[in-house]
Every structure is written in structure tokens, then in C-alpha cells.
């Protein structure tokens, strides 16, 4: 924490025990703990203040860059400027092929796909279901087994 090694800490503890005494040592350690706690609190508060100042400076820098970029864009494209009209929109929106839209594959591509409704997958047999069906021969589940299974366990 403060550059104190374990061996150094043990030496300080033994010296404190010798000079302060076992009777006063708990009270002294309590006051030292309070002082260390206060110092940590002050350090934490100071660090948080520095981090807040740095965060605010970064936000101001980002705001400045955003304003400069915005001014540059507005100067390049003024609001009263004359821009070319967009191409006429065709009457059938389905005939327009956007570059990001993939064409629909032919129906033959879906022939091997399963049809709806899909069949439910087979249920897994759980230990509880095996016990209820009388197929569980595990010793841990002896209380759930029938009398025939218990006689089998006694024989082994």
C-alpha cells in the first residue's frame, strides 16, 4: 500500500507491541485505522475530482471538434444552396433494387426446407422420468425405487 513489505510490517507491529503495550495497543490501532481511513477517503475524493476535471476537459474538446466539423459541413453545403433534384421514383417500388437488398432466391432453393408446423423434438428422458418408469437403478435414488429394485441393491 505505502511501499511497506510484509516483513517490515511485522517488525513495526512487534515494536508497537513492545513500546505501546498490549493494554493500549487496541486503542492505538483503532485511532491509526481511523486516520488511515480518513487519508484513503481524502485520496479517493481527490482522485475523483481529478477524474471529473479530465472528463469535463475531454467533453469540452469533443464539443469544440463537433462545432468545427459542423461549421465546415454547413460552409460546404449551405442551406440556401441549389442542389440537383433526386431522380424520379418509379411507380412500382418493387422494381427498385437497392444495393443493400439481396434478391429473393428462387422457390427451388426452399424445396429441401421443412414445412410448417415443425414436429416437436423427442423429449429427453430425465432421471425423474426414469425413476417414475422404474428404470433408475442408481443407489442415490434408492428411496424412489420400487421394492424389486431394493432387493437387487441388497444383493450387491
The general outline is flat
Helix content: 40-55%
**What is the structural class?**
mainly alpha
User: In sequence order, what are the helices and strands, one letter per element?
Assistant: HHHH
Question: Mean of residue pLDDT?
Answer: 76
- Please report the number of helical segments: 4
Rounded to an integer in angstroms, the radius of gyration calculated over CA atoms is 39 Å
Strand content: under 5%
Subcellular location: Membrane
Membrane topology: Single-pass membrane protein
Region (Disordered): 80-156
Biased composition (Basic residues): 127-145
Outline the structure in words.
With 156 residues, the protein is mainly alpha-helical. It has a domain at 6-76. The protein has 4 helices and no strands.
Write the layout of secondary structure elements.
Elements lengths: L5 H15 L4 H52 L50 H6 L14 H9 L1
Pfam families: TatA_B_E (PF02416)
Protein name: Twin-arginine translocase TatA/TatE family subunit
Organism: Sphingomonas rhizophila
Amino acid at each position: 500500500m505505502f511501499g511497506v513489505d510484509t516483513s517490515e510490517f511485522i517488525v513495526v507491529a512487534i515494536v508497537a507491541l513492545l513500546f505501546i503495550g498490549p493494554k493500549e495497543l487496541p486503542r492505538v490501532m483503532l485511532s491509526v485505522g481511523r486516520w488511515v481511513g480518513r487519508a484513503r477517503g481524502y485520496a479517493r475524493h481527490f482522485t475523483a475530482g481529478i477524474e471529473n476535471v479530465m472528463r469535463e476537459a475531454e467533453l469540452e474538446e469533443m464539443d469544440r471538434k463537433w462545432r468545427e466539423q459542423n461549421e465546415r459541413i454547413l460552409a460546404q453545403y449551405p442551406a440556401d444552396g441549389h442542389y440537383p433534384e433526386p431522380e424520379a421514383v418509379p411507380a412500382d417500388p418493387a422494381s427498385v433494387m437497392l444495393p443493400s437488398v439481396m434478391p429473393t432466391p428462387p422457390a427451388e432453393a426452399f424445396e429441401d426446407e421443412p414445412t410448417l408446423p415443425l414436429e416437436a423434438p423427442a423429449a429427453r428422458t430425465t432421471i425423474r422420468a426414469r425413476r417414475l418408469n422404474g428404470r433408475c437403478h442408481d443407489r442415490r435414488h434408492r428411496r424412489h425405487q420400487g421394492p424389486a429394485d431394493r432387493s437387487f441393491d441388497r444383493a450387491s
